[in-house]
TrEMBL record:
This is Chaperone protein HtpG. It holds the Pfam family HSP90. Residues 1-350 are annotated as: A. Belongs to the heat shock protein 90 family. Residues 351-566 are annotated as: B. The gene is htpG.
Length: 573
């Protein structure tokens, strides 16, 4: 078969360039990434075989093999998993489909120093391409399970790659790295050294459920410790490097944070550590264990339709579904982790899961647990909570529209920008504690930005009287405020709608009589104005809300606000 040369897509080329010029200081993670991909491929094949018994694939000894050749300076990571078709290879390896890549590369270019660049890349992650940090040539040989021909892909990472169809290829994928020379300054180690490989696998991939076996072709001294040999002269059994222990089944004090973090990175494909670890265990008639994570940053596609959400669903240590969305509500779609149930059918479809009573029960419990963890963060780890809310608050607030059972809890863990403090957002509880004598309601205003709201004439009287106003600037705020009437008996009141009812002297009998008198005095003027403005307004009335501006436009309490009109328009309604 002829070998053809192809060009990398622009973004892929730029990322590769960054890899070759080593922007990560920790190059060991290339092995974590390749093992993670191999493990995913094994999971996928297992799940596929479970669903489709006509699949012509061998699932008898699924594993990952690492082969190191010290003399040739090559390192091979092999799996007998699902593999890739010719088209898969072009799609998955030649292009970067990850959303936000272009934006990320732009930010990288503007990063002023290496620390800033490292921080950015730590949030991005480059998966397979990280092999170019340690290799000057990478070859990938793969065959999709069930297909007969394979594909060989090769590249030095500089602009182009070659593709070739091969008749003889084992099921699954082998990635063969031609390693760069050792360079202690640049932190490129001898990755054919078994001790180094063992160390990296232990550190980053110990929990991987598939066996990771090491075969070395190295001087005798570097061989693993004595192992049983059935027949003299045969190579020793390959050494299994990982303990394969399910972290969620172990008690918290047995497992280090680093181990939890590595599991999180494998599951989420995130390169940054998670913010919180949540562990749960249910005993009794319906047993399950859960290990959940709150990430420190949202994925770049959190607001996109095809954002993958949900946690991994295991049944008795066997992964049966990636991204099981039935287990977590949509407004907690950033939660990652594992749920391992003791008693579920292995062969369930997504549709059946949505209906399953046990799944619904777990869904409710998991949601409550995540919310209570956030509440606990708010009380005990305010810095973590503040960072969490900055990153995910907009998403969590969607729950005010969908999760009526937990509405009060969600309101309780929410924070809002406020006129009380320009720097720190406030919770509703704190707002209520600061309410003025006689103030009945929680006042808020929605708008595009803090400064736009602050400039609004609606704010005048509130500023004047020192009444605190919440400044709601997220698009979702426009929507939920319409359906959340109160918090702890206090009505939520928009200051831009209807009469504000300040609860101060304006509402005394005397003031009301005053206003009535003024209304009579100005009746003729108001009628004239209403007629002149005609269709453009509903009504013209005297207002107590202004202190500086002569007039302002308000909407009625039940009306759609201008920002909401924009939102509906953006959603195509
Ligand atoms: P990610 O794992 O975050 O998707 P990677 O760059 O690590 O990103 O891998 C890109 C894609 O290439 C994977 O999503 C997968 O579809 C495919 N891939 C990589 N390695 C393998 C492998 N060993 N077997 C099968 N597919 C693989
Ligand atoms: Mg990967």
């Amino acid at each position: 078969m002829p070998t053809k040369t192809f060009e990398f897509q622009v973004e892929a080329r730029q990322l590769l360039h960054m890899m070759i010029h080593s922007i990560y200081s920790n190059k060991d993670v290339f092995l974590r990434e390749l093992i993670s991909n191999a493990s995913d491929a094994l999971d996928k094949l297992r799940i596929e075989a479970l669903r489709d018994d006509t699949l012509n694939a061998d699932v008898s000894d699924l594993h990952i093999a690492i082969e190191a050749d010290t003399d040739a300076r090559t390192l091979t990571i092999r799996d007998n998993g699902v593999g890739m078709s010719h088209d898969d290879v072009v799609q998955l390896i030649g292009t970067i489909a990850k959303s936000g890549t272009a934006e990320f590369l732009q930010q990288m270019k503007q990063a002023e120093n290496t620390a800033a660049a490292e921080g950015l890349i730590g949030q991005f992650g480059v998966g397979f391409y990280s092999s170019f940090m340690v290799a000057d040539e990478v070859t990938l040989l793969t065959r999709r399970a069930g297909e007969t021909t394979g594909t060989r892909w090769a590249s030095t990472g500089e602009g182009t790659y070659t593709l070739e169809t091969v008749d003889e290829a084992p099921q699954g994928t082998s990635v063969i790295l031609r390693l760069k020379p050792e360079d202690t300054e640049d932190k490129v180690f001898d990755y054919t050294d078994p001790a180094k490989i063992r160390e990296i696998v232990k550190r980053y991939s110990d929990f991987i459920t598939w066996p990771i076996r090491l075969a070395t072709r190295a001087p005798a001294a570097a061989e693993p410790p004595e192992q049983e040999n059935d027949e003299a002269g045969e190579r020793p059994e390959p050494e299994t490097l990982n303990s394969r222990k399910a972290l969620w089944a172990r008690s918290r004090d047995e497992v280090s944070d680093e181990e939890y973090h590595e599991l999180y990175k494998h599951i989420s494909h995130d390169w940054a550590d998670p913010l919180e670890i949540i562990q749960m265990r249910a005993e009794g008639t319906f047993e399950y264990q859960a290990l959940l994570f709150l990430p420190s940053h949202p994925p770049r596609d959190i607001f996109s339709q095809d954002n993958k959400r949900g946690v991994q669903l295991y049944v008795k240590r066997v992964l049966i579904m990636e991204d099981c969305e039935a287990l977590v509500p949509e407004y907690l779609r950033f939660v990652k982790g594992v749920v391992d149930a003791a008693d579920l059918s292995l062969n369930v479809s997504r549709e059946i899961l949505q209906q399953d009573r046990q799944i619904q029960l777990m869904h409710r419990r998991l949601a409550k647990k995540v919310l209570s963890t956030i509440r606990e963060m708010k009380a005990n780890r305010p810095e973590n909570y503040a960072s969490f809310w900055r990153e995910f608050g907009r998403v969590v607030k969607e729950g005010l529209l969908s999760d009526f059972d937990n509405r009060d809890t969600i309101l309780g863990i929410s924070s809002f920008a406020t006129t009380h403090d320009a720097e720190r957002p406030t919770g509703l509880q704190e707002y209520i504690e600061r309410m003025k004598e006689g103030q009945q309601h929680i006042f808020y205003m929605t708008g595009e930005s803090r400064s736009a709201i602050e400039r609004s004439p609606h704010m005048e009287v509130f500023r004047d009287k020192g009444l605190e106003v919440l400044l709601l600037t997220d698009p979702v705020d426009e929507v939920w405020v319409g359906s959340v009437p109160e918090y702890q008996g206090r009505e939520l009141r928009s200051i831009a709608k209807g009469e504000p009812e300040l609860g101060t002297e304006e509402d005394t009998e005397e003031a009301k009589a005053d206003r009535e008198q003024q209304r009579e005095e100005y009746a003729a003027l108001l009628t004239w104005m209403t007629e002149r403005l005609g269709e453009d307004v509903k009504d013209v009335r005297l207002s107590s809300r202004l202190t500086v501006s002569p007039a302002c436009v308000v909407s009625d309490t039940g009306d759609v606000t201008p920002a909401l009109q924009n939102l509906y328009r953006a959603m195509g309604q």
